[in-house]
Amino acid sequence: MLSIKNLHAAIGEKQILQGINLEVKPGEVHAIMGPNGSGKSTLASVLAGREEFEVTEGSVDFQGKDLLEMAPEDRAREGIFLAFQYPVEIPGVSTINFMKTAVNQIRKYRGLDSLDAVSFLSLMKEKMKLVEIDQSLLNRSLNEGFSGGEKKRNEIFQMAMLEPTLGILDETDSGLDIDALRIVANGVNKLRSKNKSIIVVTHYQRLLEYIVPDFVHVLYKGRIVKSGTKDLALELEAKGYDWIKDEVEAV
Amino acid sequence: MSKDIIQEFTSKEYEHGWTSNLEADAAPKGLNEDIIRFISAKKNEPEWMLEWRLKAYRLWITMKEPTWANVTYPPIDYQDSIYYSAPKQNAIPKNLEDIDPELLKTFAKLGISLTEQKRLTGVAVDAVIDSVSVATTFKETLGELGIIFCSFSEAVQKHPELIKKYMGSVVPVNDNYFATLNSAVFTDGSFCYIPKGVRCPMELSTYFRINAANTGQFERTLIVADEGSYVSYLEGCTAPMRDENQMHAAIVEIYAMKDAQVKYSTVQNWYPGSKEGKGGIYNFVTKRGLCFGDNSKISWTQVETGSAITWKYPSCILKGDNSSGEFYSVAVTNNYQQADTGSKMIHIGKNTKSRIVSKGISAGRSQNSYRGQVHIMKRADNARNFSQCDSLLMGDQCGAHTFPYIDVENKSAKIEHEATTSKIGEDQIFYCLQRGIDEESAVALIVNGYAKEVLNQLPMEFAVEAQKLLALTLEGSVG
Asked: Chain B: which residues have CB within 8 Å of chain A?
């Protein structure tokens, strides 16, 4: 589904990604871990098409298409969803209104008619239940005055609404208490299926207790330096990142 | 990304820039007492009306054009404009079927149907083209309730007692340079009277269109709401694209008696000039409401997207005790547009309340100023005012300015003023893009969200129109 080859990306003069290789198959959940500044969030942003990062080398193939050639909105319409680490506030625009615009633009891209009000509402009710979110929150201005937990839950609600083939969760666990974490993780788990894939970017192992990954990759200095199963996450939790750094420096 | 979008934005074309091929009956260029006599004669006015105009003219020539607004433009040659132009019709139409089909086409293009049976929305329209009112719909339905809704010229003929009593009662002849000019040369406009205790069952609307070249438009609107009545009034305006600047100096007067309520909404979309700043309408307008009676209420809502220069301060004089005034505004400027707009709230009566919500949006190389005054007079015990002035900037070549004036002469007053300035962020745009929403829709969403509090004040069908207009005006304008 997603094939990243030798991906290099820079912001200004600063090289951040220095040769990422990653294969994600349908239905798989991959966790990307690593110390601060290793390039985790940059990877998520580059995949979503944020323009301040310049891809200097490498390729990304998404379902047979050259992802790097696509505009950010077309990537979204092709099925890539990014749950933001810091969801943005848009005053005066309700989540419902926002989602109505998004759903219909994506449908248009795919050659489908707009959803009428009734169908949209029933889709929304179904997804609200799935991620345990209250309608009163969705009537409010998008993310304005939301708590950290509410913002993240809202991201997962949007992911449910847009039904992406590849969901990228960028530090979705940051700023969440244990209850909020569980609700968010449950929501994500309900969205897992055999043809949908998820990349979880996280600093801590904690989230992976709830969203159990098929693979764990450690990012360090812009490269994936170690890959393994969920046990690798536990090992990192127990030992920290220093031993990985040492291993890398030793080579 | 930003640069491209700014370019895209500035290439947006004005939608109402066409002209209609209407034969016009016009005055010669220039302004003097003869021209005023010409206008008055054309309109077959009574002597008192002509005297009123001449008095205004004689005053006007002694006055100086104001220079305090935060706008710049080359000196206006008042002798270079035409002060009267009327689309030629064989005779004054007796009913809608007799209207020149070319005129009907003009209004159909604007999305305004003048044929009553075709209207679904239940809005009565008075259509003013250049200097004259060409049609007023639903007159009879309204007449049954005692509501008078007609062109100003017709009111001068048929209701002279009301015109004599109320014309100039809110905006006096000597009020300001442009108002005095209007008083001398005004050519038409709308008049509306709502009798005691009547709630007007439909929106009343005036639609203004400048069509002829080199022509100024000077209309006046007078609304009188008798005790306990209610009316909601809407005004819309467009003009063709022309290389020269055209002048629009209008007056709107609202007189609200005891317990009366008037809601006045404007969607102003005069031609703003080219993207290089050539042409466009100079919009110098005096709008004022007098809450004369106790418990009366006047509410102004404006969506300003057009005009090269806007100079406009819809105001309320809160004379009656417990009366209230509101001003809700969205002013958008783009390219080389300049707007100096805001409101005045003059508290005279006790327990008077006012509310000002102003949302400025500046893009391109435009300058957008809010200018507002809140004045609490000596005997206005327990007066309250809340003002909120927000500015949204798009790109880094535009300007937003705020000039609030507060004068308080009574210690019991409570006044709150809030102001914010923000920029449409790349972050907000990217968030929308990542959800599959294209850039233009993203800007439209964000801007409409920003202006929501004001747009919510508009009658339903016009709110939708205003939203589209905002989106169009700002197409691709992020920086």
From this structure: 1, 425, 427-428, 430-439, 441, 445-446, 448-453
Q: Answer whether residue B202 shows pLDDT above 90.
A: no
What span, in angstroms and rounded, lies between the C-alpha atoms of B367 and B338?
Answer: 5
Residue with tokens 């609304």: B223
Assess A11–B contact: CB distance below 8 Å, yes or no. Answer: no
* Number of other CB atoms surrounding residue A192 within 10 Å: 15
Q: Residue B428 — φ and ψ, nearest 5°?
A: -65, -45
Below-50 pLDDT ranges, chain A: none
Residue B98 confidence (pLDDT) above 80 = no
Q: What is the pLDDT of residue B24?
A: 65
Please tell me the predicted confidence (pLDDT) of residue B109.
Answer: 61
Tokens in use for A132?
């345990």
Residue B445: CB atoms within 10 A of its CB come to 23
What is the amino acid identity at position B1?
M
Element (DSSP H or E) covering residue B67: none
**B90-110 per-residue burial string, b: 16 or more CB within 10 A, e: under 16:** eeeeeeeeebbeebbebbeeb
Residue of A75, A93, A162 with shortest CB distance to B445: A93
Are the Cβ atoms of A81 and B439 closer than 8 angstroms? Answer: no
**Subunit contact A73:B425, Cβ cutoff 8 A:** no
Q: ipTM of the assembly?
A: 0.96
**How close, in Å, is residue A215 to chain B by CA atoms?**
26
Q: What whole-number distance in Å separates Cα of residue B171 and Cα of residue B177? A: 12
